[in-house]
């Protein structure tokens, strides 16, 4: 069962109830595990989530007009903090649709939200998450983790631990050699026991990598040249002929 975390910021109780009812109905019809977090304002959301880098929401539904902090303000703050997930705007006015481009919004829904329109939007979200997520079967469930939220894959006996930006660790029965074959180019093998997401590399030394969460991963000597070349190509920021 695919897991999706949705955060809704909506100050109208009736609109929130309508949205929640539709999402849960869609979840049941499509055999999805959708978790919904709700807030009445941007201020309330950031009060409870001061560290935006630990946000594990797959998608945000943001009411554009709510209090002093608009949905557009919330979206800009999320993007500036590094959030790369899905944003959908909720609005009663068509003219606000143009504001979605600057924060890379997936869609906007006119209120009151129509169930058919909501279902089409949720179809887009599940498709987007499937294309941009690492999906695997774990016993009786299907786990979907956005690539952007994965820090490392590390081997442990017959299992692989998947560490994410929110500090959670997921377990899969697999090998790193099999996993690396199915990962996009931003992932690099740094050690026989580690695969690292280059998008989260903060610093590379002659023997280790420091990630954005300050975790330090050793680079095996046999992998060092490949790591440096791959990271140089990925970032295009430094000369790979330079010495550390």
From TrEMBL:
Domain (HTH LytTR-type) spans: 142-233
Starting at the broadest rank, the lineage of the source organism is:
Bacteria, Bacillati, Bacillota, Clostridia, Lachnospirales
GO terms of molecular function: DNA binding; phosphorelay response regulator activity
Briefly state the protein's biological role. May play the central regulatory role in sporulation. It may be an element of the effector pathway responsible for the activation of sporulation genes in response to nutritional stress. Spo0A may act in concert with spo0H (a sigma factor) to control the expression of some genes that are critical to the sporulation process.
The UniProt keywords, alphabetically, are: Phosphoprotein
What species was this sequence derived from?
Agathobacter rectalis
Source species, domain of life: Bacteria
Give the SUPFAM superfamilies listed for this entry.
CheY-like
Q: Which residues form the Response regulatory domain?
A: 5-126
Q: What is this protein called?
A: Stage 0 sporulation protein A homolog
Positions where 4-aspartylphosphate occurs in the chain: 63
A Pfam family this chain is assigned to:
LytTR
């Amino acid at each position: 069962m695919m897991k999706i975390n949705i955060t809704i910021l909506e100050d109208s109780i009736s609109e929130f109830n309508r949205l929640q009812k539709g999402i849960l109905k869609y979840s049941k019809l499509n055999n999805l595990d959708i978790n919904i977090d709700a807030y009445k304002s941007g201020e309330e959301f950031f009060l409870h989530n001061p560290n935006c880098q630990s946000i594990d929401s797959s998608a945000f539904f943001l009411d554009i007009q709510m209090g002093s902090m608009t949905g557009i303000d919330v979206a800009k703050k999320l993007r500036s903090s590094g959030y790369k997930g899905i944003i959908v705007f909720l609005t009663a006015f068509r003219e606000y649709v143009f504001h979605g481009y600057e924060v890379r919004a997936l869609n906007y829904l006119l209120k009151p939200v129509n169930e058919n329109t909501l279902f089409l939007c949720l179809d887009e979200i599940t498709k987007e998450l499937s294309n941009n997520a690492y999906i695997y079967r774990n016993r009786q469930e299907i786990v979907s983790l956005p690539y952007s939220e994965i820090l490392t894959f590390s081997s442990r006996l017959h299992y692989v631990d998947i560490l994410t930006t929110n500090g959670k660790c997921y377990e899969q029965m697999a090998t790193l050699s099999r996993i690396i074959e199915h990962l996009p180019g931003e992932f690099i093998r740094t050690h026989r026991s580690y695969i690292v997401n280059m998008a989260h590399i903060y610093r590379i030394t002659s023997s280790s990598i420091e990630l954005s969460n300050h975790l330090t991963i050793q680079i095996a000597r046999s992998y060092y040249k490949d790591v440096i070349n791959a990271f140089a190509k990925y970032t295009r920021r430094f000369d790979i002929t330079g010495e550390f």
